[in-house]
Specification:
With about 260 residues, the chain is of the alpha/beta class. About 30% of the residues lie in helices and about 20% in strands. The strands form four sheets. It has a six-stranded mixed β-sheet with strand order 1-3-6-7-11-13, sandwiched between helices. A hairpin with a 2-residue loop joins strand 4 and strand 5. The radius of gyration is 19 Å and the shape is globular.
Length: about 260
């Protein structure tokens, strides 16, 4: 399960002490796993593995939105966000996830899409929801869904991706020998029909989504020091809005995952 380090402008334990919490997450996850009994359902799938992931996701949300002394006002849509759940539950824990983070860029807050930092890559991701066939419109600033009855049109995800890249590439420059930037547009339930695109963009759609996912799942490298340094630097420019708790927790263990 990917380590969820930042959502929106919410306070995160990782931004307080990344090195401590990333190692603590690994230990707690293993302890939690041992506590779950695995049963096999009628469909042959492991029942309490699903429960384990769902429980861990809810606890990750706590880590990404509160600390011992502070708490953020969280939009409850994130607790039901299937895209966020997939990225946390189905990506290995040697990856760090920034989900719609708000960063300070020239003193102004800017909301990005998804940043997934692995041992060797910095994946900048724009996620396209819905089905159909996405194509570039005549006005290349927009994409159209050619199979939609209502001919849905959206601002081109390439624009959002290029904005992310322009912001992140400067921070990634010192780590370019160890971490390469990958720009990716993902439409897991649709098709992307673009021809002769000269930009270095990975298009992942219904045809190759599983292949993309398996490449990440099979990444064998452990968390690396340069990876942590980069994540720490991006956390340092994150915008945080939070309130002090009326009754601060006495110690860190009170905020640890349930049952630990």
């Amino acid at each position: 399960m990917a380590q969820l380090v930042k959502i929106q402008d919410y306070v995160s334990r990782y931004e307080k002490n990344l090195y401590h919490y990333q190692s603590l997450f690994m230990r707690i996850k293993e302890n939690r796993r041992k506590g779950f009994k695995t049963d096999i359902g009628e469909d042959g799938r492991k029942l309490l593995q699903k429960e384990f992931r769902e429980t861990l996701f809810q606890n990750q949300m706590k880590w990404a939105t509160s600390t011992v002394r502070e708490v953020s006002n969280v939009d409850q849509k994130y607790n039901r966000d299937q895209q966020l759940q997939f990225l946390t539950q189905e990506i290995p824990d040697n990856y760090f996830l920034f989900y719609e983070p708000v960063l300070r860029v020239k003193s102004a807050p800017v909301e990005l899409d998804v940043i997934l930092v692995g041992p060797a890559t910095i994946s900048l991701i724009v996620w396209m929801k819905g089905e159909g066939i996405w194509q570039e419109a005549e006005n290349k600033r927009f994409w159209k869904n050619g199979s939609s009855e209502q001919k849905e049109t959206r601002l081109s995800p390439v624009i959002r991706l290029e904005r992310m890249n322009s912001i992140i590439k400067g921070w990634a420059e010192p780590y370019k020998e160890q971490l390469s930037i990958q720009q990716t547009i993902i439409a897991p339930n649709a098709f992307i029909d673009l021809s002769n695109d000269w930009r270095k963009i990975n298009f992942v759609d219904k045809r190759n989504f599983k292949e993309w996912h398996m490449r990440i799942v099979n990444e064998p490298a452990p968390v690396k020091s340069q990876q942590l340094k980069f994540v720490s630097e991006i956390l340092s420019i994150g915008v945080t809005n939070s309130l002090y708790r009326k009754d601060p927790l006495q110690n860190e263990s009170e905020l640890s995952f349930e049952g630990i």
